[in-house]
Amino acid sequence: MKKTFDEKLVILQADPSADCFILADAKDPDMARGVASAGRAADGRLRSIDDLRQDIRDIVKAELIDIMLMSASTSAKLTIEERIFDGSPVLPAVRANDTTDLHVVLGGRYVAAPSAPFRTATIDHIQAGKLNPSPRERTRGANLGLYSVTFNNIPDADLLTLERYNAFRNEAEEKGFDHFLEVFLPNVPPEVHGLAPEAIPGFVNDHIVRLLAGVPKTARPLFLKLPYMGGRAVAELCHYDPSIIVGVLGGSAGTTHDAFFLIENAKKHGARVALFGRKIIAAEDQLIFIEHLRRVGDGDLKADDAVKSYHAAIGRKGLKPHRPLADDLALTTTATAYGS
Question: Which domain range does residue 243 map to?
Fold first, then answer.
């Protein structure tokens, strides 16, 4: 079956301003948060990896998203063994690296130290579930990966990050593997990176533009995944190089209005992709929440109307909202880093 992501990518490559929107569910928290990665059930108990994988099965079956992002181990089970993406319009993708600022482990200090490049997953394992596969075996798994970088204005650390990404990109091109690029904000304190808050969007944008200037089309990421740094930062990237498809990440849970407004406002300024993880896992009902994300992304609902519609929908299902409607209509500032 044709994947909706592939169809939308063709449209956006031909016309970056086209009114279509790519929605991804980031179900890869086990690459970062360990035992707590699947969140908590309504009774407060920690959920298991099997619970998380059942969420993935249900969401893929609903066909409301374009991309399902997973860990390599989850993809090996669901994509390669169970074949849940066969006959589905949803495209499987895998987190291809796990920089140390993602290592949110109990008692750990890694998220506060300068991000160091690291890669647990291999392209072979993502594509085939084994090392040194045959060309035919490479088609069994996922062929899209998320590669993450964090620049901290520390020359030696940033250079190593660039070198590792360069090596990954070359291997990906050799093996016919597509990727998209996640660029985080500096994860060290301001006294270390030396940047004023208002300078960070420009610092990140300049890194992206400078990096991609040395990369031809055959090796470029298909799109970007960035913390939302405001409409001006998104518009700046889209204006400078319309061929760069900009996507935003959801960040921490926040209010329901935070999630819907993020999509609405980012799209208004040129973004055409959103990847939500923690906001979806934290929702009262993941499928109803994703349905409303989809409707906002497609322009069928305004953000504040979507909050009201969402509350009505979970009410009909007999679910108690996390917050009263008035509180859930508020806009707050949510964290964008894994360690926040």
Answer: 4-328
